[in-house]
Amino acid sequence: MTAFRSGFAVILGRPNVGKSTLLNRLIGQKLAIVSDKPQTTRNRIIGVVHRPGGQLVLVDTPGMHRPRHKLGEYMVAVARQAMREVEALLLVVEATSAPGPGDRYLARELEAAATPSLLLVNKADLVSAPAAARVAEQYASLGAFRRTFVLSALADPDLEPLVDAVLDLCPEGPAYYPPDTVTDQPERFVVGELVREKVMLLTREEIPHAVAVQIEEWAERPGGLILIRATIHVERESQKKIVIGQGGSLLKQVGQLARQEIEALLGTRVYLELWVKVSPDWRDRATVLRSLGYRDT
After folding, report:
1. What CA–CA distance (Å, rounded) separates 103 from 278?
2. I need a surface site. Which of 164, 272, 275, 296 has the fewest CB within 10 A?
């Protein structure tokens, strides 16, 4: 009988390489929000992968980047902290571009961590197989990776070889979480992230990076209805006007799109009420960051 294995693996990579998409695919449902804007993920997000022979706890991290404010410093600190005391590091890169300075920096971080690492060359569906293989070879030369996987987190029908390879790096041991657990994040956090995702989807330029969402009220009502009131924080009055939109049109669209996914997540009807508040320079104010859930690591 094969022994049960369990362990933790950190997903690392530059912003916008597909880390959150990979996490969602491996756990089988949407947990981390996805956007084409860099630095979408701001917190450490845990997703639990259950298999008959093992349990893999995946940690999605903010993309490593040069911070420009306290929020950026927090995000980089979260990524570094997540690399400690895990069984494997998964470096996600893009098959669409050759290694750059950011990739070489990450490779050095992995080497310093001295933890077994796998190279995941993502978005292989966007280039030819020979081109993906050439790029994979360039990335593989950056470090001592145990294995290299050329894949598409979005389009590959079967990612089980990757799951098996990571579990092989994990020790024998019991499961860390019950079999019905997919994350350690509270529902309030996931709901707030879904609202933020819709704002990011519908806005451009500086707006996506200047937005944070805070759940102010969560109350159950008769008939299974859940009332959720959330505040969308922005940094300037001009940003508030954009997020609200003409006659409240954009904010209404954000609410409609978010409510659909929140109801699917919670399995019940939801009344979602959104407000927009100007919190000047919140990304550089430690007290505001703490109130929004961005804690020191």
Report:
1. 36
2. 296
